[in-house]
Design a protein that fits this description.
Two copies of one chain form a homodimer.
Chain A lengths: L4 H8 L3 H8 L7 H13 L6 H8 L4 E6 L5 H16 L3 E6 L4 H13 L4 E4 L9 H8 L4 E4 L9 E5 L1 H14 L5 E5 L5 H16 L9 E3 L5 H14 L5 E4 L2 H13 L9 E6 L12 E4 L2 H20 L8 E4 L2 E3 L9
Parallel strand pairs in A: 1-2, 1-3, 3-4, 4-5, 5-11, 6-7, 6-8, 8-9, 9-10
Antiparallel strand pairs in A: 10-12
Helix pairs in contact in A: 1-2, 1-3, 2-3, 5-12, 8-9, 10-11
């Protein structure tokens, strides 16, 4: 058991109150007693009980983070950015994983609220369409910041990229290198970022007077390596002329490339590919993947910074004005769209 | 601000003590008052203050986890295993990253102890050679479990793999497919797992009557992709006859393969390679990497299970008997050691 004030009091044969006052430098305790108490506390390795401290300050100095998936290059980069920044400000981070499940996400928010965290950071599960659990956080006046996978309708601060614009840049790049029949492997139907990337793809085709054909849009349900392989097989059996694919996320793109390699279809000569996220793996597979760089570490850092400001404002009972931070992305051109095609 | 007992008391015009007693079903409060209080608490969405609860039960239901690196396939799998298991038992996990720094690791342990976590899980930073900060955890009777990168001399429970045996299996496989001049890219000098893998490599050479040549052992200081490339360049300039390499970790092996591909040196025909960890990437690069499968998710799960048992035992003041769990590994044979060489 940790050393308590009582242990120090017993050792010195004085009252617990005197020990407590001595440690807090109250003026009605003699210098000699203070010195004695502090030396004993140090000797016994006494540490103030942080729960008791919390009860006084009403701060837990702990925040909660809920993400859909941990074993994922992008999200682990975000976590890295968050805990780095949090540590600088003396905050600890409790991490929970929703596994893309709405039910789990809801339960985890309850857990964090019961734990009285000072604020919550969240990237939504694909399944989440009802937002009452998020509004519950705001109703309790607990600061909330959403990042990457957000709900537009929830009135809180957000850190995002411009998914529509990034998708437009990716699609325009395929058009610029000469692709005329461009397919899209999109994410699931619900997440906002999956919708926005699809809309960016569609609009760019139309802006360039290319036909938009909905049968060229394939869904990757669980955004997996396998999805990439099966989508390629399906696409090849249904369409002959596809010469470029914009793929919602790198892992699916890597699966697609593996399947094209297996079938002896040349990338980029026969089919050019652009991915999304700039996972490290994209730079070492063969051929190397052209992709949109999504700034995971920075997104984590900015999300914590926003949350921290809101925690401070909320402590002073200042009104919160939700803010949306949009981070820059870049197109990283590599071999899957090389100009030699 | 969250709803407090005071809010309920004011609303009903009764004392805070009565509210508190009513919620706890004390016999000296009337049934009517209890019902009224409970209904009001539910209406106002009152949640008991977890800090106050903690003060009573002396349990935070929170554990701390310190790992060297988050953006790392193996460690993110371990985290996944830990938080999955912890959630099942109602525990939350605070995650900190030591960045392989001893100083940071020490500071983080202090933070977690001050936070009064119920237990700590740790995989050591490469720099950690002094263990007083770990013994400090034990001195405070806080349960501690180390995993993967452990300190043999610290008397706590551990979850590990048999690194020496796994390295022996990897090296033996290279010998079995006909390699005679086998190099080793090892990890830094201090971590126990890096030492053990090296010893497994060395012993296997000697057991097979092959010469051990220390100049064939190259260090990967930061275990990076770049390390793999530079080690290959250095090795090729110093040795002509190397026909196999056992590499301490997959990321370095992937860098090595990239450099060999660049130079037109054929893998496995000219040089065969075995990695370590079975990172997902290993199965999609070209050629696909033969490697030792390290069970990250299971290691996380087993580590939490051990910690949980110790937390329960410590609550009952039962003596702790440190236990070491050794998990199985397998050799996954792929193209970098294919038998066609």
């Amino acid at each position: 058991m940790p050393v308590t004030l009582k242990d120090i009091a017993e050792k010195l044969n004085i009252s617990i109150t005197t020990v407590s006052k001595a440690l807090k430098d109250y003026p009605d305790v003699s210098k000699k007693t203070k010195r004695l108490v502090k030396e004993t506390a140090s000797l016994l390795n006494y540490k103030p009980n942080s729960f008791a401290v919390n009860l006084r300050t009403k701060e837990s100095k702990t925040i909660g983070l809920i993400i859909p998936e941990i074993v994922h290059h992008f999200f682990s980069s975000v976590i890295n950015g968050i805990i780095n920044q949090a540590e600088k400000k003396g905050y600890l981070v409790i991490i929970l994983q929703s596994n893309e499940s709405y039910e789990l996400e809801k339960k985890q928010i309850d857990l964090l609220l019961a734990k009285r965290v000072d604020g919550i950071l969240i990237s939504l599960a694909n399944e989440s369409t009802d937002y009452s659990h998020l509004n519950e956080i705001l109703n309790q006046n607990v600061p909330l910041v959403m990042f990457d996978k957000i709900a537009k309708l929830v009135n809180c601060s957000k850190v995002i990229i411009n998914d529509r614009q990034a998708a437009a840049i990716a699609t325009q790049h395929l058009i610029d290198i000469g692709c005329k029949h461009i397919a899209h492997f999109r994410g699931p139907l619900l997440p906002q970022n999956s919708i926005d990337r699809f809309l960016g793809y569609k609009k760019t085709l139309l802006d360039n007077n290319l036909k938009y054909d909905s049968s060229l849009v394939y869904i990757s349900d669980d955004m997996s390596f396998e999805n990439g392989k099966t989508n390629i097989s399906k696409m090849l059996s249904e369409h002959e002329h596809v010469d470029g694919i914009f793929i919602n996320t790198d892992l699916v793109a890597v699966g697609a490339i593996a399947e094209l390699n297996n079938r002896g279809i040349k990338v980029p000569e026969d089919i050019a590919i652009v991915g999304f996220s700039n996972w490290f793996m994209s730079s070492v597979i063969s051929p190397k993947l052209t992709t949109i760089n999504q700034p995971g570490f920075d997104m984590g850092k900015q999300s914590f910074k926003l949350l921290y400001k809101e925690i401070k404002a909320s402590k002073k009972n200042n009104p919160l004005v939700p803010k949306t931070v949009v981070l820059d992305t870049d197109l990283i051109i590599r071999e899957t769209t090389s100009s030699t095609r």
